[in-house]
Amino acid sequence: xxxxxxxxxxxEFVAFYLGDINIYWYGLIIVFALLIGLGISKIMFKLYxxxxxxxxxxxxxxxxxxxxxxxxxxxxIHLDAYMSNISQIFCIWQGGLSIYGALLGFLATSIVFLRxxxxxxxxxxxxxxxxxxxxxxxxxLANFMMQFSLGTPLGLDIPNxxxxxxxxxxxxxxxxxxAYQYFQPVALYQAFAYSIVFMISVLCLLINRKYKFLAEGTxxxxxxxxxxxxxxxxxxxxxxxxxxxxxYPMQWIALTxxxxxxxxxxxxxxxxx
Length: 273
Known about the structure:
Blueprint: E1 14-18, E2 21-24, H1 25-47, H2 54-77, H3 79-83, H4 99-117, H5 121-146, E3 166-167, E4 182-183, H6 186-211, H7 218-234, H8 249-272
Antiparallel strand pairs: 1-2, 3-4
């Protein structure tokens, strides 16, 4: 369910076929992001002297739970769009994954697994954070290239002043906005913003390895806060036919995540002291 897309349009995103099964580019991009993310995590774990082998057992649970939660969150937020066509709820190749749903699935699965087997919960979260951010960067770039995320429509003369804009083909434009050729490239904005957070998280982990100036869990918690701030701010640029709402559902979620994460950080600091 992506704006002006029709069901048949998604055949353009088929990478190849395995018999009667369509293998979509979006799925391949997720696999690519996962593999590179694992490589990044392995480097971080090695730098901190942590065993990486348990990660393979954790992934067996994290991957399906995170994807399911990401899809459920997205569908709930856009429930009105899916009520008229329930079958599209299962069409994950058409785009539509919630960052916060995936994060919730990741956290719930990781906490249960790490607590059960006695691993250092906050250190693992810190070391996995760059991989999470890298995955989000890749997925946002995929959303931009496939036009799964559209921002607010821009004036027809926008390209003449060299503003950053996303050209959308006529058949993919939202209903009622066919006259607009250019939209805010919100996915590209997010990819750029997450790239900055990614570099900050890696730099903090590298420096902290030697100087120990940050408590365990700090890199993870502050990265989550920054991600929520980014999602909240860029939320004002997202396309929506409903302009009467003070904040969109994803912005309320981002605001809740910000408050909850700050609260967890404060409680953690008091416990540490």
